[in-house]
Specification:
The protein starts with 8 loop residues before the first strand and ends with a helix. It is α/β, with parallel strands linked by helices and about 180 residues long. The chain is about 30% helix and about 25% strand. The strands form three sheets. The chain has a seven-stranded mixed sheet, sandwiched between helices. The protein has one domain: Class I glutamine amidotransferase (GATase) domain (Rossmann fold), CATH 3.40.50.880. The longest helix is centred in the C-terminal third of the chain and has 15 residues. Helix 5 links the parallel strand 9 and strand 10.
Length: about 180
């Protein structure tokens, strides 16, 4: 275990339909780097994960409702994908407001697959460069982003990847970028 993120707290925003591997692997990398992580969601209890959007893939315990979370309590934000997860999040005013406020702080935000949908809804993509799952790229372009097809894209505070095939590079990038961004000035 390393300690690049020791003493740092990362919010993970997800709800039912999250792609299990896109939450589980980054969470493991964050914990392995010494971070604390809290799962924020639209409801308390547990959220249902999926595999390839179709097959049930277990549950994750929610730490706090996003409506009760404060952006100032976190050092970084992770937005995993799955089709249903961000599609539900982007219709929830509390989730959208949390993401918008988080981006406005300048703290690092990592997203993968369909995760950027909520960034589009929050209106924070104009002039940003990122990648995503192919089926939402038009939505991201319509929100003002420059969308590219690369394994990992870093644009300032924003770290993005296309999908599960990119998880090794994505996990490495989020640890490096979160650690660099969180160093004292």
């Amino acid at each position: 275990m390393t300690n690049e993120l020791h003493g740092r707290k990362v919010a993970i925003l997800a709800t039912d339909g999250v792609e299990r591997v896109e939450l589980e692997q980054p969470l493991g990398a964050l914990l392995g780097a010494g971070a604390q992580a809290e799962l924020l969601s639209l409801h308390t209890g547990e959220i249902n994960a999926r595999q390839m959007d179709i097959d049930p893939a277990g549950t994750f315990t929610v730490d706090k409702k996003v409506a009760d979370a404060r952006v100032g309590d976190y050092d970084a934000l992770l937005l995993p994908g799955g089709t249903m997860n961000p599609d539900q999040l982007r219709t929830d005013p509390d989730a959208v407001a949390f993401v918008r406020e988080f981006v406005e702080t300048g703290k690092p935000v990592a997203t993968i697959c369909h995760g950027p949908w909520i960034l589009a809804e929050a209106g924070v993509l104009r002039g940003r460069r990122l990648t995503s799952w192919p089926s939402i790229r038009t939505d991201l372009r319509n929100a003002g982003a420059e969308v590219v097809d690369e394994e990992v894209v870093i644009d300032g505070q924003l770290i993005s990847s296309r999908g599960p095939q990119d998880l090794p590079a994505f996990c490495k990038a989020i640890i490096e970028r979160f650690a660099a961004a969180l160093q004292p000035a």
